[in-house]
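Chain A, query sequence.
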Amino acid sequence: MRIRGTAAILPIAAMVLAACTPAGSGSPEASGSQAPASGGTASCKVGVAWATFQEPRYGQRDEPGIKAALEAGGAEYISGGDAQNKAETQASQISTLLASNIDVLVLNAVNPVTVLSSLQEALDAGIPVIAYDRELESDKVLFLTHDNVLVGHMIADEVTKVQPTGNYVIIKGDKTETNPIFLRNGMEEILKPLVDSGDITIVAEEFTDSWTAENAGNEMDQILTAHPDIQAVLSENDNMAAGVTASLGGNLDGKVKIGGQDGDPAALNRVALGRQVVSVWKDAIELGDTAGKAALELCKDPDVSKVTGAKARKTTGGLDSFGLELNPIPITKDNLQVVLDANWITKDVLCKDVTPGSVAGC
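Chain A, predicted structure.
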């Protein structure tokens, strides 16, 4: 999410605003709670509602980041569990969290519209809410994310550097969310002049239910049937890029230039192998840590505008709110050492099947 104009995202904005108008089991870590740090107190109870652990980052990076920050601050972590991308499951989990007398709710929403009744339930109870990595149409929550417009910009920038001409495909995330639109807006910053000049032709562009590799692969199969001559695919995350890669028979020769994001281990390995051009790395541990620290502040003062680093922003629907965004880093074959130095991935995983010395870091 970049705090800038959002005129291009009015269709989703209208949908979300309409829903806001008043009327008359995942990873092992995702269940249970974590006791406060030794010597700390349980005076701050933070509930976290997870949309999914489908992408490895949420259970392996984001959740440990939140837990560690809360433990260091003497707070108690309570997980609602993995909603498995099911809105009704998440609604039930949020109700259970609220019944646990939490002081702060960190909400990684399955669906930004259907979750609004649960959000209102929390706000009515005086519980401050952090919208984690997925925007909520509310002027009462703190939106915490990476700059997703910049992520989209980086994906398109790195791919067009190596493939400045030809037929392009864009595989977008779930149409019920705003992140796919932020990402697409960022891509447009790079693509528009190239499309206008005729250097690039976007032959297909699809939303993908639940961001799954399977759905993305099925979409790519259909696209290839209609357009067999494809030079590049811009995927809005690495999980969908995996489906695209499978549809391309593994893209073993790297002929089709693929971009993604999240820094998934398998995607970083594909980058090292030359089968994917870029994975924009969003340090999910840092994001989780930031969320945990923000929750600790909200336990003391529920005013989201006073959280360290919070800045005024407009929601997709135009509401005045506050957000806190972190910067992403594009990882290509030229800077793989960055993720190694950060202990994000081990060398054996990153360099699996890579010819030694063919890329820096392997």
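The chain has two domains: 7-146+283-326, 148-261. Residues 1-41 have pLDDT under 50 and may be disordered.
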